[in-house]
Amino acid sequence: MFINSFGEKIISDDVYINNILEINLAGVTNPNPDYRMMQNVIPSKMNYRYYVFEYVLEGKGYIETPEKNYTVYAGDMYFLNKGQYHIYYADHKNPFKKEFIVLRGELADRLAALYQVEDSVIVRQMDIHPIFERIFANIEREDVIPNDELELLIVQLFQQVKKQEPGRKKEKDLAVQIKDYLYDHIRENLTVAKMISDLHISKSVAHRFFAERYGISVMKYYMTIKLDYAKQLIRQTDESIAEIAHYLSFEDEKYFSKCFKKEYGMTPSQFRKYPKRDSTREYKE
User: Fold this and answer.
1) Residue 202 domain-assigned?
2) Domain co-membership, 57 together with 106
3) 50 contact partners, CB below 8 Å, separation of at least 6
């Protein structure tokens, strides 16, 4: 056990349990107003492939993704899916204290598939502190870690993530399916033809259902979320404008700048120099 540069009490770093489960990191984040983590934000370094489970013991924090922003409080468990864009950080006035477990491996992949854990971020109000404590106790033992018990605890974590809130719809309506599809393909040069082919719907049905639900055309919405993602990349990374344009599949930097200026009234380069304002939006599932 040791304390890292973020003031976190690290119980485990790189514990290989067997060939199908690796606990990369586990411990407790103590309140720190400067705490901030970024995963898969820089386009040239999109290689963070771990599942992250965290439980907020006290205080308040935030999670940002290209799609939504979340606010988490004491009693919230949140899950960050592997390979996704995440920025999460503590509230400056009331920084959270949280437990965390970072893992990967064949077992974790199979559990994610079995329980259909597909969302980038999942937030639940539930007490999973006892599960974390049992995992920590297993890891801290000096003798051989009991694989069966630890694997069972990991199964329980994925089960908690899968649990649906009472009254939540199991099936998504068509407009929501389209919206989710747009986010899933946010980095591509997506066309309506490809979308309706993949979703097995007609163009007229897609436009009608989407406009009725969101009050905007499908492709206008798609361009809006691409440019919003671009804003985050410009703010949060040192990647060049050309690299960001390429990463989001704009035909070239000039066209990207034209679209960006039309949407926000300034070029990407001007936006990067513009004073940053607090734009944190609260959201909870």
Assistant:
1) yes
2) yes
3) 24, 82, 102, 103, 104
Q: How much is the CA Rg of the chain, to the nearest whole Å? A: 21
Name every residue whose Cβ is closer than 8 Å to that of residue 12 and which is 6 or more positions away in sequence: 23, 25, 26, 27, 139
Structure tokens at 85: 């864009």
**Nearest-angstrom CA–CA distance, 268 and 235:** 10
- Tokens describing residue 62: 């935030």
Q: Are residue 98 and residue 185 in the same domain, yes or no?
A: no
Could you tell me if 139 and 11 are in contact, meaning their C-beta atoms sit under 8 angstroms apart? yes
pTM score, two decimals?
Answer: 0.73
Pair of tokens at residue 114: 């079995």
What CATH number has the domain bearing residue 118? 2.60.120.280
**Domain co-membership, 107 together with 200:** no
pLDDT for the residue numbered 150: 85
CA distance 96 to 134: 21
- Comparing 112-121, 252-261, 270-279, the range with the smallest average pLDDT is 270-279
In a domain, 219, yes or no: yes
Tokens, residue 276: 């940053």
**Residue 146 covered by a domain:** yes
Burial zone of 273 (CB within 10 Å; 0-12 exposed, 13-18 middle, 19+ buried): exposed
Tell me which residue of 11, 39, 14, 9 sits closest to 24, measured CA to CA. Answer: 14
Answer whether residue 233 shows pLDDT above 50.
Answer: yes
Structure tokens at 152: 């069972």
> Among 171, 213, 3, 25, which Cα is nearest to 104's?
25
Count of structural domains, the chain: 2
